[in-house]
Amino acid sequence: MFRRLGLHTRAPYHVFLYSLIFGATTFHSFILSPIAFKLLKREDFGNLQNKIFPGYFIAQTISPVLLGLTAPYTVCPFGIGVLATSAVAGALNYFVLLPWCHSIKEERVKLQKELGADAEPTEELVNLNKKFGRAHALSSIANMVSIFTLAIYGTYLTRSLNKV
């Protein structure tokens, strides 16, 4: 397909895609989010993340698949496994953990409105906060798995490109 388009090698496109997804995920996770968390009010930070996360997790899901399809070399089972793990982590975040976190946040907001702004936290609210903490922790782990597997793939990529 690439040759028909006049593109004789997939390597530049593959490396660009890898750089884009690895750079975006690491920048968001380790620079942008911590800064936004410190500077924004909790509600504003949550709104920002709600806008970013769907696209972010879709990118974490689709990019490893595209990397596998555009590899300028034959991807061995190890490389496929690393990319598949990364894609599964992104899909888990998008299809399972993101909706779970969102539903908990909606429950929490509804309960906080019922209780009023100055009310003491109820046992139900404390339990919702703990439930959100678990969901968020699982999402963070899945995110780190995606980033870590992409880093492993980057090492594999540089070794493989040396052979091309």
Principal-axes shape call: elongated
**Helix proportion of residues, in percent?**
over 70%
**Amino-to-carboxy terminus distance:** 18 Å
Count of runs of 4 or more consecutive helical residues:
4
**Computed structural class:** mainly alpha
Radius of gyration: 20 Å
Beta-strand percentage? under 5%
| Unreliable spans | none
Give the biggest sheet: none
- H-E order: HHHH
Mean pLDDT: 92
Number of strands: 0
Number of domains: 1
Would you summarize the structure shown here?
With 164 residues, the protein is mainly alpha-helical.
Describe the structure.
With 164 residues, the protein is mainly α. The chain has one domain (11-159). The protein has four helices and no strands. The model has no long low-confidence stretch (mean pLDDT 92). Helix 1 (11-39) packs antiparallel against helix 4 and helix 2 runs antiparallel to helix 3 (77-115). InterPro entries: TMEM205-like, Xanthocillin_Biosynth-Assoc. Keywords: Membrane, Transmembrane, Transmembrane helix.
Index terms:
single chain; mainly alpha; transmembrane
Layout of strands and helices, then pairs:
Elements: H1 11-39, H2 42-70, H3 77-115, H4 123-163
Helix pairs in contact: 1-2, 1-4, 2-3, 3-4
